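Troubleshooting entry. Yesterday's outputs looked truncated, so today I'm pasting the complete records for two proteins to confirm everything comes through intact. If either block looks cut off, that's the bug. Protein one:
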Amino acid sequence: MSKTVFLETHNLKNKATGLGTFNYELIKGLYQLDFNDLELTLNAKNPEILEKEFGNKFSYHKYTNLSRHRLFRTRKKYDLWHSVNQNTKVEPFHINKYLLTVHDVNFVEEISSDMNHKANKLFLAKLEKATAITYISEFAKKQTHQYFNVPNVPEYVIYNGNPITTILDTSEFISEIPLDKPFLYSIGDFLERKNFLSIVKMMIHIPDFNLIISGNNHKSYGIEIAKFITENNLQNRVFLTGKVDDIAKQYYLSKCHAFLFPSIREGFGLPPIEAMHFGKPIFLSNKTSLPEIGGEHSYYWDNFDPEYMKTILFEGLNHFYNNQNMMESFMKERAAIFNWKVAAADYLKVYEKCLF
């Protein structure tokens, strides 16, 4: 008789976020594999959409907001419950085996280090019932052990894959952003920890390039950046596109002169991998997980003084483009390390270790 695994994947409703991407790409990776001894159930607000794409490969459970509350938790007993991120409030009513995936514990620094804070208590409760724990990076594992007493259970580091598996035809894409100069590109959620303001400030000192940043800039941090752009007369050189679809994203990634990602707190960091897939020079902060992801051939900022950042940028660009063929090859090889089918196979192995 097959063992049953419940994947708490309701965050896939927003594929533009890191968690949404993780959930969807993990499902896609699992879909490509054989798991005859397991019955995998996906949790989603619109399971009919997933069923249309993935058919009877999976079972499906409909997520509702009420399921976040204890009284309305799923009553069915699953052999293994996979909590696919550390923040989800959806939990099983009956606990059998429990796998926790940790992306980061940034909430300790961003919200409160008080262990009685509700975010920390939620995470502690997850740790206490974990049969095993997976982390998306060595940094995420290190950070978790730094702040929490982690139970003595099996732990695994499984890197995320590259969400770009197909190069799209961007030949008919027309950018609303002027491309009269070579441009630098970045993309991500407009949160302070993404540190986009640092690269906007750097642009004051770089008149010969434009900067394009994609993401949900309607948030307060995006409004702050837009105000800085206006106050410093950068409107003709720094552009916020808002959210973009995959065609626009691949267009900007493939045409940019360099990709910038100055985040100061990152459990993994998918956008740099996407840019490496196109063989682009990558400029990252040297904080948290990013050196682990970028590897030895990316370029790193260790502080965010605008003139220092400009110096590192131009030194890196000179090095990259003076050795362009070799460096493009290095970046593409690095991106190829991160593969969702491989990651999904590793998760299946963890399921089996928990259950058999």
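Protein two, checking that the full record survives here as well:
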Amino acid sequence: MATMADVARSAGVSVATVSHVVNDTRPVLPRTRQAVLDAIDRLGYTPNTLARSLVTSRTRSIGLAVSAISNPYFTEILQGVEAGALEHGYSLLIADPHDDPDHERKVVQLLHERRVDGMIVAPSADPRELLAYLGRHEVPTVFLDRVVDPPADSAALRYDQVCAESTEPTARLVTHLAGLGHRRIALVAGLPGLSTTRERIAGYRHGLAAAGLGHDERLVVHGDSESAGAERATAALLSLPAPPTALVTANNAMTIGTLRALRDRGLSVPDDIALCCFDDFAWADLFAPRLTAIAQPSREIGAQAVRVLLDRLAEPDRPGRTVRLPCTFVHRTSCGCPEGRQQPQKVE
């Protein structure tokens, strides 16, 4: 097996220069760097990552803790994180907290014990123990998709956050339905406690106000961010004395549950009830009717989270920042609009 010394001899440089190229610890002239890379390729040299981590205290690994990995939205985020990590020479360790605060703290501790350099976490609805652990151990962390408020006693905790806009895009769905003549527009909201749930409820109310419509609390139900919960919540909406004529679902899993509840009632979209959804997904364009949706930049959220984490690792003491990415309004036909050449529109 080739060693670093073999690479140095082949490239005509010192072992220290090879080390700087491999570990990216000091700038090397482009010509010299290429000679080293050519020698590495020629000899089939593989760096000893374990030995390197013992010397540098870095493992070049990132921990990712995100629930519902089977959800297409989080799957695309994972792809973005993985691509960003590999681009910068990092490996990825993945855990599913199951949106459970106790399990969340445990999996984050397990990732930390595996000496990851930093973490990317989609926090639960109650991240107090998570924040306490991260603050106590000073773990470089980026919160993904959902934002958190630090507890009052953690002023020294520095963290970064990357997510999509939620409030204005949800308002856009509501005003679109109101513009089509709907006056009883309902929201199937997500799991209480999540920032995305709060923001999408706020966006729903903003949309109603912008359209000059009153707010009826009975038209906001919680599907708990999953299909079965949305099915139950939609059934409750349809049982109201004056049921809604249009629905907004707050994520893609709940859209599936809502469609199932409508089917069970024998209701047709959009003839009997209009539907718009937050989260676009690969097969939304294949439904009949095609689903009008807000598309989040899922892969870019994941890739951006990696970039922000690497900035944190390079500059540990800088202030935390929140990066919000714009969504896209994808206009199709489930809202009741006729088939046509509707163009996607950015919503910020």
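Both blocks look complete. Sanity check on protein two: DSSP finds twelve helices and 13 strands in the chain.
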